[in-house]
Amino acid sequence: MKGISPMIAIVLLIAFTVAIGGIMSVWLTGLTNTQTQQVSNQSAAQAKCTPALVIELVKAPSVVAGALNITFSNPSQQTINAISALIPNNMTTITLSATSLLPGDVGTARVNVSSLPTFVRVLGTCSGLPVSATCENSMSCWQTG
Q: Could you read off the pLDDT of 56-111 as tens digits, one per residue?
């Protein structure tokens, strides 16, 4: 019974290994380039959107229920879209009438609450990325009265 010579077997094994290594190298290079580009694009979008939302003032009623006035701004370079306010104690998320906020603009919202919340969060999207700002009742942005 005859087989292939050991020298030919070694050459075939080395050629097969090099071919698989080449295929893996091309695939990994393409994957790395794609991932690097995606991360670069997201980083650029995040840089343009930072800081995206700032709550300037939350004026809360001095009693348990009443109107909560929220003033917020967009100091970023991009438009903020789909703006809403989260009022946790009332378990409500309210879509604000100004659904978009241009760079440098200030928005306001008036929300009737049945109980005084511990914080208010304004949410939105900037270049497809979620952004938010929070004002707690112990922060300087919170006023009662």
A: 999 988 777 788 889 999 998 889 988 888 887 666 667 665 678 899 999 888 88
Model-wide pTM > 0.70: no
Amino acid 77 reads Q
Buried b (16+ CB within 10 A) or exposed e, 92-129: eeeebeeeebeeeeebebebebeebbebbbbbbbbbee
Give domain 54-144's CATH number out of 1.10.357.10, 2.60.40.10, 2.40.50.140, 3.40.930.10: 2.60.40.10
